[in-house]
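Entry 12.
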Amino acid sequence: GEYVSDSTTLKKSTITKVQTDSDINPVECYYWFYKFTSLTDAQLSRLKEVAKGNNYCSLINHMFDGCTSLKTVDLSNIKYDPNAPSGFDTSCMFKDCSSLVEVKLSKDIVSKIGSAYLKGIWKDAEGTPYTELATSGNNVGCVTKLGKVGSTFKKAYKITLNGLKDATIAYKGTKSVSTDETATIYRVYDEVLKLSDYKPTKTDYEFVKWYKDSDTTKTPVTNIASTDTGDKTFVAEFKEVSNYWYASNGVLHLSKTKPSAWDSISETYKGTNYVRNTGEYVSDSTTLKKSTITKV
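Predicted 3D structure (tokens):
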């Protein structure tokens, strides 16, 4: 990671951006920007074929190792020497790049991403999330597979929506997300996520709000700001909607809202639940005699 002239060694801490001003076919790229801790942007689209660095592969390992401030990288055209039987050595390429949020990668890097130490979940330009992460070894939590080649990949965060038992949730009213206890969605780092687009429905219940799972006050949350990073969990709160019914003079009245005469009606002739599959209307004290009803 040292760039040296006849008289000086470049102070890496002063560099915030690197770029290629012409097409370059490097001998190798390993450790090129090692611990450039102030580097935020690497625009290297004009890096081309990397020569065979040893008997097996072209070397780009540790290329950005220790670049803790690095946010964006463009390596969309880099490729390995066709005479290198093992392709690229990408090991530790993005090690400790904790600020990295957007990468544009060539197909040759995508094919070897498992050893590059690219931390976390990523989405391609079409919105497909890549969630397979290493669970053992030194690269735990790093993505092991990326799909669409030649794409811009953006860092994504896992959003877990809990409290959905017996509910159905849809995205903007069209795309079904889950009918289970939990739904999982993935938000890219610069996206404002409107939780109002994820409104669950549940029979005989009305959705009230989303709130953070750790919030004992259950403060409503409607949006997740683009500056609000990291994985998050929210819980759905519902309130039961009663099915009011009452019988009067042979007429069965049904309503989702409480009738104005409710308090004056005898308990024997009203209730707030009904069993649809059997046709029984039940209060605390009686089951409605269906034979007495001439109109509903």
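Annotation: Residues 24 and 47 are 5 Å apart (CA to CA). Residues 107-110 form the longest helix (4 residues).
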